[in-house]
Amino acid sequence: MGHHYFFALALPESVKKQLHQVFHEHNLPFARAVHEQDLHLTLAFLGEAEEEKLEKARENMAEVLRTFSPFSLTIDSFGTFGKQEQPRIFWAGVKQEPKLHQLQQAVSSACREAGFQLESRPFRPHITLARKWRGEEAYVPQLAPSAMQFFSEEVVLYKTHLDRSPKYEEYDTFLVTE
Asked: How many domains does the chain contain in total?
């Protein structure tokens, strides 16, 4: 099986540590917690990629990010995807920020111009913390985070290694600077 690639907003180490700590303090019975170093906010999932298309996407990304400057994001919620009582995904959400949606649209456009077909689902910014509820009782939302703020300073092209932990390798990094 080939490697999968995706562009994501990098999180500062302090935020990764804090999210990891909050999740583990509550002992929620999910089958797989995301490794602390793998925490990120996905902007565009590319899937498997030919080197030529990947190189074009990287060139496009460097160009696109010149028009953005760092902006502040606030992690302010926890939620789930899937059935309410047995969720597939447990995530941390970010407060609505138009600049994040503009960045995601620009990243997606850069990837499409490089020849990638991206998901058509609406962008729902989140940071996946765990997968597959394994509790004996139905899941009941119980966490209310204290707001965590950070600056969006790096977009990273990650390469996935399913046989490793952490499983995401920083393949290339792009600074968000105008």
From this structure: 1
Would you call 22 helix, strand, or coil by DSSP?
helix
The question of whether 26 is a catalytic residue gets the answer no
Domain enclosing residue 96, as ranges: 4-175
Determine whether 126 is an active site residue.
Answer: yes
Q: 158: which 2 tokens?
A: 């990650």
Q: Which one of 3, 35, 40, 161 is the catalytic residue?
A: 40
**Full 3-state SS string of 71-89:** CEEEEEEEEEEECCCCEEE
Of the candidates 20, 24, 101, 126, the residue annotated as catalytic is 126
Contact 150, 13 (CB under 8 A): no
For the chain, what is the mean pLDDT? 91
Q: How confident is the model at residue 144 (pLDDT cuts 50, 70, 90)?
A: low
